[in-house]
Amino acid sequence: MLRRSALFMPGNNPAMLLSASILGSDCIIFDLEDSVSLNQKDSARLLVKHAIETLDFGNVEVVVRINPVSSQEWKQDLREIVPVYPDAIMIPKACKEDVEEIERFIFEIEEEKQLTKKVKLMIIVETAYGIETIVETLRCSRRIECVLLGAEDLTTDLGIKRTKEGHEIDYARAKVAMAARAFSIQAMDTPFTDVEDREGLVKDTLHAKSLGFSAKACIHPNQIDAVHAVFDPTQSEIDAAIEILEERDRALALGLGVFSIHGKMIDLPVIQRAQNIVDLARKTGKRK
Amino acid sequence: MKNALGRDVPGQPYLGLQAIKRIEYKQTKSDKEERKDKVHYDLGSFIKTLALEDNMTLSFHHHLRNGDFVMNQVMAEVAKSGVKNLTICASSIFPVHAPLVALIEQKTITKIIASYVSGPVADAISEGKVEEVCLLQTHGYRATSIMSEETPIDIAFIAAPACSPDGNITGSMGPSSCGVLGYAIADAWYAKQVVAVTDFLVDVLDPEIPSVCVDDIVKVDRIGDPDGIVSGTTKITRDPVGLRIAKLTSEFMKATGLLKNGFTFQTGAGGISLAVAKEIHELCLDENIKGKFASGGITSYLVKMLEDGVFEELYDVQCFELDAVESIKRNPNHHKMSAAKYADIHDPDNIVNQLDFVILGATEIDLDFNVNVTTGSDGRIMGGSGGHADTAYGAKFAIIVSKLVSSRISVVVDQVTTITTPGETVDVLVTDRGIAIHPRHQALIDHLKATTNLPIVEIQTLYQRALALTGIPEKTQNLGRIVALSQYRDGTILDVIRQIDNID
Q1: Which fold has domain A5-231?
Q2: Residue A109: which H helix or E strand, with range?
Q3: CA distance B317 to A173
Q4: Which of B272, B433, B470 to mutate to test binding with chain A, by most A CBs within 10 Å of its CB?
Q5: What integer is the mean pLDDT of A101-110?
Q6: Does domain B240-480 match CATH 2.40.128.20?
Q7: How far is A286 from chain B (nearest CA, A)?
Q8: What's the pLDDT tens digit per position in B450-504?
Q9: DSSP type of residue A92
Q10: Where are chain A's structural domains?
Q11: ipTM
Q12: Pairwise CA distance, residues B370 & B343, whole Å
């Protein structure tokens, strides 16, 4: 599934739920947690449940962020949401212990309701403990598909100031990207919070991409195109990748193990990267 | 008799685009000998001197929009004379013209011809208070019908933001400046008698309406309220759904291959239309594309595009905003144009025929791409064609932009309530949930499907997508008396509008 962007939307806004699938984001995250006030938790949960049951989201991945294990709400969130088959449940403030508890409860629901498809998990690491124990967390469940770095809560936990430049989260970013790669799980970058600053968003996303992130969470629809532009391969990247794959095919036909293009030796990792670029180009429609 | 769109209509039915006949106009007033002493200082006593008779047709323009004082002032004095059964031929009628309702009820006014009507007068027509069947025309056909004398004007009252003592008029000067007087030009040249009503008597060097057209001038205190004349409030939508539609529209325009040096463009003042302009603006700057002109009603945003070099020229039939009023005074590439130059069907060089793209709205669009911007789905009059049908006919691509579902109502319907613009002149519908292209462009549909990721679907698919959200709306049938006709730009009748009761 193509997942370059994931747009957070409050779960208690019917108009937003209705338009969620048409804003261009690859993934939408209906939020039952931070953007929903305590007295709205019930209605948000029911609205999201009915939206998933009723609306056609097409190719857009539907994820629901539940309330954390420390709250009174998370079990009821799962009881209502898991049976309507969202693509994934997003777990906030994730650590190994919480993920295990949530997965046990999800399993109970799936058994009880005899659900035919297992729901996937996405986790947010957003505490110092979560960052430092991320490897254990990622190892504890096969359902985890994606890990999102939550820099706002993390910097609050660290008692430091969040800046646009983001140097304060460099360590966390590198750690999340590395751990995710180790488990072949996607790393998704923290949202950029100034929704009017497109230039800053592009810079921030490019930095995350350079560290190994392949997606970015968005908090406003106007961020989606810029994020896609960063993660989409450029035409020259696509052209170069196609050339490599064509040369590979020629070399294979001739029974050659290695070959070179423009004097540069092409080995397996380069071919794999070229294949990734062409696959992504196909998914994004840049190459038919 | 059924017209080519399957609607039962009285009068000359619409027979399709192929059946449009060309006509020529008679000589105008250029040789007329001018009177001296044209200026009068009291509207009431001047009106008493007019040879007013029952059944006359009086005309007005709408450049002062919802800030217009002139139609109400003039008609109040006309009513005092006791004449009855007048026809009002106004280019548009706004909520500010509510006092006309009393004159309709007392039969001073028994017929209205206009290109756009909103507010209490629209309701009066819908409720059947106007005795005769009214006509809702396109901007182009209003000029055509006056010039061909199908609508003979007995007296044209022209609100004149600035007028010289001998009768030279401009819209670009004075306290009630509105920039352009494009919709008043046909009235000035073809009405039997022309009365300028002004609050600013001054020398006019560059008149839009020359003194030879003007028989009398009445000086009044004020002709309008500047706050209502130019809105100054048109804003690019911030609604993510509207922005999505705008983005898709600009991507479609680019994919057609016509968005290149020399392209021509028209868009309205609605939030999504302006967002399309912004997308095109950025695209043109990024790719160094320079358009030939933008036309129609001119907003601040189009002025900005002119000033940024995205367009070489603007052709302006009415100014929507103060920036446009200022621009037309100082920028030689910002041209004034008459409604006839804009959209008269018998002028082969008219501006609409030179358009590559026009961005238009819709209240409803049906499976045959017919568009309604005249009535609500309940049949209540809430607007009219304006230049909708004219530009759709002229432009290579008439693009309708709309949310697929708004306030739980689908814009796509199986049959529109009222046909304003025939589907055979509409090319594309861009919604948030897909783009539908008229099936007569099958080659383009195939090309775009093969080469782009644009979400191109059949209009029936959009209809089904909308129904999935809204459910199937209950049909209503209105058999009330015919209160107005929707008239096409060749004068034929597209549709009828029927009386509805109990408007709140």
Answers
A1: TIM Barrel (3.20.20)
A2: helix A96-112
A3: 57
A4: B433
A5: 97
A6: no
A7: 8
A8: 999 899 999 999 999 999 999 998 888 888 999 999 999 999 999 999 999 877 7
A9: T
A10: 5-231, 235-284
A11: 0.81
A12: 20
